[in-house]
Amino acid sequence: MPVISCFFGIYLRMYHADHPPAHFQAEYQGSEAFVSIETGLILEGHLPTKAARIVREWASEHRDELLENWTRARNLEPLTRIAGADND
């Protein structure tokens, strides 16, 4: 599964041809969660409170890029990297 962004030890990934609703996977220190692109809220799984807040804010700032990647993933096209919250 391609990494689309990484910051503060949080890895964000997106599956190709994944099921709706539009989402990405966040991993941090052994915790994993599926996060809604539209709302930034955790759909399934768990992240520590601070990591969840950072991911939610990041997702809000990068919603358009995430949706573009979601469309690419559904079409089995290569995904693009998105700048992290720490500007990496």
Average of per-residue pLDDT values: 94
Lateral arrangement of strands in the main beta sheet: 1-2-3-4-5
Question: Which spans have pLDDT < 50 for at least 5 consecutive residues?
Answer: none
Radius of gyration: 12 Å
C-alpha geometry: globular
Q: Write down how many β-strands occur, each being a DSSP E stretch of 2 or more residues.
A: 5
Query: Major sheet, described briefly?
Result: 5 strands, antiparallel
Distance between the termini: 20 Å
Strand content: 25-35%
**Could you state the order of secondary-structure elements as H and E?**
EEEEEHH
Total of helices: 2
Estimated structural class: alpha+beta
Helix content: 25-40%
Task: Fill in the keyword field for this structure.
alpha+beta; 5-stranded antiparallel β-sheet; 5 strands; globular
Report on the structure:
There is one protein chain. The protein has 88 residues and is of the alpha+beta class. Helices cover 28% and strands 28% of the residues. The protein is built from 2 helices and 5 strands; from the N terminus they run E-E-E-E-E-H-H. It has helices spanning 49-61, 63-74; strands at residues 3-7, 10-13, 23-28, 31-36, 42-45. It has a 5-stranded antiparallel sheet, with helices on one face. Strand 3 and strand 4 form a beta hairpin. The longest helix has 13 residues, at 49-61. The protein is globular. The protein starts with a strand and ends in a 14-residue tail after the last helix.
